[in-house]
Amino acid sequence: MLKRYLSHPLQGLASYVFFALIKLLPISWASSLGGWIGREIGPGLGISRRARRNLAIAFPEKSSEEIERLVLEMWDNLGRTVMEYPLLGRIKVKGANPHVEVIGAENIDLIRDDDKAGIFFSGHIANWEIPAICISENG
Hints:
The chain is about 65% helix and about 0% strand. By secondary structure, the protein is an all-alpha fold. It folds into two domains: about 1-90, no CATH class; about 90-139, no CATH class. The chain starts with a helix and ends with a helix. The mean pLDDT is about 90.
């Protein structure tokens, strides 16, 4: 019990310092670093066994090599997402050198300008916070 009271604040402090350092990096570097960390550490974690098992059930036609590639891609994506999270405020949708390409931005304009309420749906893929940034910057 005492160990938890000591370790949790230390874990929080370590996370705070780590992500403060990540904020110093360019977005592309942080994302690449996150992908690398995810690919290096993730496949060895116990939860990856469940991912492999679930992927094999969902895609019985895939070979074990293809399943392993999907697991690597999953961890790459999650690592990138985690490392991009502290940098969301710097992700640009508009202007010179945007980080995101919005296809169909004219639809955002139509919904914004028709004086009716609108709801946007997006997939829970890649960095799932970015669609909200796209709507906010375009609406």
